[in-house]
Amino acid sequence: MIVVTGAAGFIASALVTRLNAANFNEIVVVDNFTNERKLLNLSGKHLQQYVDREEFFPWLDEHHADVEFIFHLGARTDTTETNRDLLNILNLEYSKQMWQACCQYQLPMVYASSAATYGSGTLGYSDDDALLPLLRPLNPYGDSKNDFDNWAVQQPEKPFFWAGLKFFNVYGPNEYHKGRMASVILHAFRQITETGSMTLFRSHNPDYADGEQQRDFVYVKDVVDVCMFLMQTRRHSGIYNLGTGEARTFLDLTLSTFAALDRPADIHFRDTPEDIRDTYQYFTQADMSKLRGIGYERPFTRLEDGINDYVRQYLVPGAYY
């Protein structure tokens, strides 16, 4: 059996789809399963069992001999969350318990970290372990992810294989439930289909023109391909960036969304909300040399191609991945 936590969420449900495509059908999905809209992400999947996240560790104590691999992707992912106690419970302590269980039962694991750990990016975007204690995230969510990364690399006892993945700006099908935290592509699609135009955040940094803010946007199908690679190789434990290695502008993204919809571009700007303005990142770009260095050779999807696939194959028909 393969365990996937946070399984009804965006990236994890895409991973379940990819596992099924590779004929892995004995999948144990772990989540709180209270969000009915998220549950649509698992509709039609070949699954072994649903386990509530509060019941998972007793379940694992009983069934660990049958578990082959754990993907721990469950987390509180709202970057505007200010409840540090909640983030500490869900993102730090639960992950510590997962790590310790994998050590106890000799289970390999991949877990979700985040590019939010890099903060303003003043130290760059290298996934070198030596930089981990120097990173200063810009929000409590990033702190929770960075705290676990630092804790993990310092542990004298580790799973025989483990990998933490610093997800950059992931987009793609099955993020319909994410609200404000959904990718800009989904917001653009909705605005364009409803109004014929798209409004982006204005730049409040003199080094960047409006719409020229840059992110490393990575298609969720590429993300799950990397997860599969790590499960299949099980070598070279460590923390890895997971982006494309190429920063693109929000104008690039928006123009590609208009093109995928066969509509003329009509773009406007508004001030960045004050609650995120001071912590807004103007540039992110993953250094992908570490993952490439362990043998991952597949190319990452060009932004234009990923948006075209996402919009035409999923957003327009309202399909799930």
Automatic annotation (TrEMBL):
List of catalytic residues: 141, 178
Binding site for NADP(+): 10-11, 31-32, 38, 53, 73-77, 145, 170, 178
Protein name: ADP-L-glycero-D-manno-heptose-6-epimerase
Subunit: Homopentamer.
Pfam families tied to this protein: Epimerase
GO molecular function: ADP-glyceromanno-heptose 6-epimerase activity; NADP binding
Function comment: Catalyzes the interconversion between ADP-D-glycero-beta-D-manno-heptose and ADP-L-glycero-beta-D-manno-heptose via an epimerization at carbon 6 of the heptose.
Cofactor remark from the record: Binds 1 NADP(+) per subunit.
